[in-house]
Write a structure and sequence with these properties.
By secondary structure, this protein is an alpha/beta fold. It contains eleven helices and nine strands. Helices cover 38% and strands 16% of the residues.
């Protein structure tokens, strides 16, 4: 669990892990020099439970270097990242471990998830995540690339991995501070390893934070976000990011046979091509510049 200033939701997150029906685990906190009460909370849990280890970074590493730090410290057969504001059903680990134990061809397993807001209110359930179950192949990779980001495909990265598989995925696509890094990382998984998505909703992913800061709800008087309205087949990626998004896909597919496939699929996306042409237009560029003034 890489943490940084997570005091608001940290106890709820950790309690849901402590209460897992599968009990053979170690929780490793890497506190990225938090300035709130995160350290106090982590040390409190570490003092009570021998399975919990707390490490305090003297200097702030940043989000993704901290993710990599936790991965480098990992031992054992399986690994998962646990965000300090998410919530896990008590059978999350038991179900995921059972799939990996039963099928050595799987690189990771994850249940369907529910999206919640800052107050734990359900915004969206995602039963369609089961469509990403499968072995690597043209059909599987195509299905993932063509799916709208708003369907939550990036949440595959919050499943339970075989540790060695995850390390190879990180080598293929190291996470860093670029838009869509979680989509690319999950694509790297789909293209290399078998994935199993259980039909049960056993994971609550909280909106906000790095991926969607505009959806942070700090004021209890704010209205419930209508995430259902975000879902749409046109939402392949943000306006004007065709080139960067394509290069990210190609990097995630490096070393596989699917890079030509990514080219073909992107050229078949009319909206993507339209965005690319428009953003490279000098006239459009000048209009945007002058309209700001």
């Amino acid at each position: 669990m890489p943490v940084y200033n997570n005091e608001r939701f940290l106890r709820e997150a950790v309690d849901s892990l402590i209460n897992q029906s599968f009990t053979d685990w170690i929780l490793f906190f890497s506190d990225d020099a938090s300035k709130d009460k995160t350290r106090q909370i982590c040390e409190e849990y570490a003092a009570k439970d021998p399975r919990i280890i707390y490490y305090h970074q003297e200097k702030n590493l940043g989000l993704f270097p901290n993710y990599k730090f936790t991965l480098d410290q990992a031992r054992g057969e399986y690994f998962m990242w646990a965000a300090g504001d998410d919530v896990w059903d008590k059978d999350f680990l038991k179900i995921c471990v059972s799939y990996l134990e039963d099928d050595p061809a799987l690189g990771m397993s994850v249940p369907c998830n529910t999206t919640i807001d800052s107050f734990g209110r359900t915004l969206l359930t995602a039963p369609w995540m089961t469509k990403w179950t499968g072995r690597p192949g043209i059909r599987q990779v195509s299905k993932y690339i063509m799916e709208a980001e708003s369907y939550g495909k990036c949440n595959l990265m919050y499943g339970l991995f075989r540790l060695e598989a995850l390390r190879k995925i990180w080598q293929a696509y190291p996470q860093r501070n670029v838009w869509g890094q979680d989509y690319m990382f999950s694509l790297a998984v789909v293209a290399r390893y078998g994935v199993k998505v259980d039909h049960r909703s056993l994971f609550k992913k909280r909106l906000g934070g790095y991926s969607s800061p505009q959806l942070n709800l700090e004021n209890s008087g704010q209205s419930l976000q209508n995430v259902e309205g975000m879902i749409g087949k046109n939402q392949m990626f943000p306006f004007g990011r065709f080139g960067a998004y394509l290069s990210g896909h190609l990097e995630a597919l490096r070393g596989t046979a699917y890079r030509p496939l990514a080219y073909l699929l992107f050229l078949r996306l009319p909206r993507a091509l339209m965005i690319h042409v428009k953003e490279r237009s000098a006239i459009s560029f000048l209009k945007r510049k002058f309209s700001k003034k």
